[in-house]
Inverse folding.
């Protein structure tokens, strides 16, 4: 064998080795070993998904209506337990509204600009939301009649919030949002029990 033949054989061997290496790279990539990060799941950005965004956008007016209901209590109820509960609701839910507005701002998502309140704010029909007529009626009564009506409405309102929060736990993806949902469930479920006891007392 002459030098020319040896050179050709060596070049052929290098070509085969190179092709084999490329094939191995393709096989590794096919088994998920590529160094390129996979694309984010559909509907998900920066850890949150569409359900997280909707939860915050719908819970803000839901909380806002609870605050309006709580604000009616000092001038209309003489029951110390009802007044104390209303103040605790205000102190819990006002910061949560701010937290959800901050989350939506970080996500670049719009936050509700109107209160749910006495006029519904376009959110009637959401779980636990009072109608405009119900809010008007609540503002027209006082004393024991107000307490019973307020407690019954707030129980329904809390049950709606718990339902929304459970849906967030099931379908959301953002850790902070899900932690808030669990906090809402724990706090408002305990308050539902408290209000049921007050109605029966």
């Amino acid at each position: 064998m002459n030098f020319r033949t040896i050179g050709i054989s060596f070049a052929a061997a290098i070509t085969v080795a190179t092709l084999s290496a490329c094939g191995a790279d393709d096989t590794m990539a096919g088994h998920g070993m590529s160094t390129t990060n996979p694309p984010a799941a559909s509907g998900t950005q920066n850890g949150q998904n569409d359900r997280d965004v909707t939860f915050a956008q719908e819970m803000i007016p839901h909380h806002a209506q609870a605050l309006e209901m709580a604000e009616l209590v000092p001038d209309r109820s003489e029951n110390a337990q009802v007044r104390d509960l209303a103040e605790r609701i205000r102190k819990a839910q006002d910061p949560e509204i701010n937290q959800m507005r901050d989350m939506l701002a970080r996500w670049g998502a719009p936050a509700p600009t109107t209160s749910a309140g006495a006029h519904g704010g376009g959110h009637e029909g959401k779980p636990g939301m009072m109608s405009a007529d119900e809010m008007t009626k609540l503002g027209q009564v006082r004393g024991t009649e107000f307490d019973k009506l307020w407690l019954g409405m707030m129980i329904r309102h809390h049950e709606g919030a718990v339902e929304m929060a459970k849906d967030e736990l099931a379908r959301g993806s953002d850790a902070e949002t899900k932690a808030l949902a669990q906090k809402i469930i724990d706090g408002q479920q305990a308050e539902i029990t408290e209000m049921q006891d007050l109605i029966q007392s």
Observations:
- The first strand starts at residue 44 and ends at 45.
- Confidence is low (pLDDT under 50) at residues 1-42, 116-120.
